[in-house]
Structures are given as C-alpha cells and as structure tokens.
Amino acid sequence: MSSVALSRLLAFVAASASLALAQDPTSTPTPLADKHFNYPDQVPYQADPDNGVRGTQSGFNICNSTTQNQDSLCQTAFLDFLDDFCLWSAPKPDSTIGETEHEEVAWCTQPKHGTRLIPAGALQGVQFIKTPGYLQVTGFIDQTKINLQADDFGGELDPHGADLRGNPLGGLVYSNNLPSKSGDNNTYTQVIEWHNFMGSNQFCMKVCDPADPQAPQLCQHIYDRIGVQYNCPSQPTNGTFEVCEGENQDPPGIFTSNGQVMTYTQPPESLGAITIQPYTVRMPASSNCVTFQSSDLYKALPTPSGASSASGASAIGTGASGRPVSGSATRTGSGAGPTATGAADTNAANTLKISAFATVFGALFAAAFLS
C-alpha cells in the first residue's frame, strides 16, 4: 500500500472513530454552561446536538416568528422584565416536571421570541426584582395551563444536571436587562448561570449576571431538594403584579448562625426525605416597588376557553422604556423558614409538606430530577 493510500485510510479510520464517539452515549458532551452563543447571530439550531445517556435534545434554539405557536419546541428562554419573561415547562399536557425535565420548552409572556405563550389567566401574581447580581421573577401560576398536573410538586431546571447537559437539554437563556448593562435594552446577553423552580402552582426564575463573579453561587444548582424559599427568598403576593429593586440574597446554602457564616450540605436522596428545617433563611430587603395591572402587562396572551385574566393593583407611571421610574413600598424582614416533612413520590421526587407555620411562599418544590 502506498504512503498516500495509507494516509487516507488512517484519516478515514480517525474520522469514523470520531463520529462513533459523538454518537456514543457513554461519551462526555461539552457542558452546557461552557457553551457561549451571541444572540441572535451565533445561536445554533441545537445547542446540544450530542447523543448522550439521556438521548438527544428534543427541541431547537433558533426561534422566530415561524416557530411562534402553542406547539413550539423552542428551547431558548428570556428574562427581561415583569412583562417579558419565560418559564420552562412541559411540551405535552398532564405532565410532571420530574418526567419531562430534559425536554421542557419555553413558555413566554411576549409573542416575539418564537415560543409558546403562557395563556391569559395563568399568571396570578408576579414579582420582578432587580438586584446588583441578578434578575428574578417569582409568583403564582395555574400550572395546568402550561401542561403540568395540578398536584405536581415540581422541581428545578438549570443549565447543569448530573451529566452537565442541562435541564432541559440544550436550554439557552438570554436577557437584555442585566444589572451590569443598565440602560442598554437593545442587546441580549447569554446568561450562563440560572435556575427555574416550577411546581405547586408557584415559580421562580432567576438569571445571574455573568459579569458578577458570584453568579455561580447566587444561581446555585445543588439545593434542588429544599425548594424556592431557600433558593429564591422573596415576597410575592397572589393577585399583585409588581416591580421592585432589591439587595442580593445570601447565596443558597449560606446562612449565618450566632454570628458565624455556615454552609448547608443537602443530604443525598438515598438518606430519605428531608424532615427538618434546613436553616433559617434571610429575606433580602426590597424597595421602590411599583404595581401594575396584569391586563396591561400581558395583552398578547391567548385566552383559553372559560379563562379570564387576573388583575392586580392599578398601574402607575413609567419611563420612556415602559419600565417604572418611581415607587414607594419598602420591605425588609427575615424569613422564619418552614418546618418541612417529606416523602418520595412516584416520580422519585422528594416532596416537602409545609407546616401551618410556614410562610406563604415556602419550600413547596422539591427535586424531581438530578440537580
């Protein structure tokens, strides 16, 4: 065999091995949190084209007017403001987070992202808060309108997971309103660290500013079993739609006891349900809260048969950008933290039953999947 022929043979064998490795479910894909795509020019059709142990990405990331419908499989989400955010939820009705975390699709409040729209009346109270380190929306939702079972306790979505491919696989998140980009609402920045808790008719979506070195800590993903109160301490009110300024929370898992800073370690599921209060969470202060009517915020949402939009307090003045410029409410306080008991459900999720002494927005969510 000539040296040229041998070289071509070796090249063919190497290429074949490379292709086989890419399709090998035991191979290690590039972590989702290590993939950076400028929006919109560099966004790929699929951020995770690999075939790993959990299969392939079920949806796509290039989303536009042609993909804007209630069956969209768009897996690119946004968090910009009270009237413009997305949540991850199931693509098919009567689902649970635990069974579908790898294939969740984006459900949004504006018909400009190429996604499904959250139906009118589903959002029953939302607080948007902007802090030095992150943006966050928390609130109350009729989760049956976004394909979740009414009694699903839910769990956490994040860009990590045990195989580092994220939940959902290939899910990308962007924002045009990050704290480090104040005043620049024309360009989108990819958010590398984020977490989204869904379930028990409540939600939290937090995106941490990639310019902040504390982003991985503020959007921690290893405390999925202790729920929203510990990962997104906040004070939304059912029936109210508001924008607030706030201070950073303590990173999830970090707390102060008797003047000493402590770190909580979440026990593995193999040890059973979490039956005691993990720790007392500090409620970060919020201020300059401005309220709106939901009918003014979510005019474009489709109204399902027999449904009507919830309304909050009356809207007040906004600036040229449509974002509030004044407010008066100030909140401070420390969270008492719920007393929780838990039991594993049929989806291998660890549910947290909140005692009568728990705060309203307690840790009702638990992990239904790998953190």
Protein model, in words:
This protein is 10% helix and 25% strand. With 371 residues, it is mainly β. The strands form four sheets. The chain has an eight-stranded mixed β-sheet. The protein has one domain.
Largest sheet: 8 strands, mixed
Strand content: 15-25%
Separation of the first and last Cα atoms: 53 Å
Number of domains: 1
Total of DSSP H or I helical runs spanning 4+ residues: 5
Give the beta-strand count.
18
**Which secondary-structure class do the elements indicate?**
mainly beta
Low-pLDDT residue intervals, each spanning 5 or more residues: 1-26, 305-371
Mean pLDDT: 80
Please outline the helices and strands.
Blueprint: H1 3-23, E1 76-81, E2 84-89, H2 97-100, E3 105-108, E4 116-117, E5 123-130, E6 134-141, E7 155-157, E8 172-175, E9 189-190, E10 193-199, E11 202-208, H3 215-218, H4 228-231, E12 241-246, E13 254-257, E14 260-263, E15 286-292, H5 294-297, E16 329-331, E17 340-344, E18 350-354
Concise synopsis of the structure shown:
Helix content is 10%, strand content 25%. It contains 5 helices and 18 strands. Residues 1-26 and 305-371 have low confidence and may be disordered.
Main attributes?
disordered C terminus, disordered N terminus, signal, 18 strands, 371 residues, mainly beta, 6-stranded mixed sheet, Macrofage activating glycoprotein
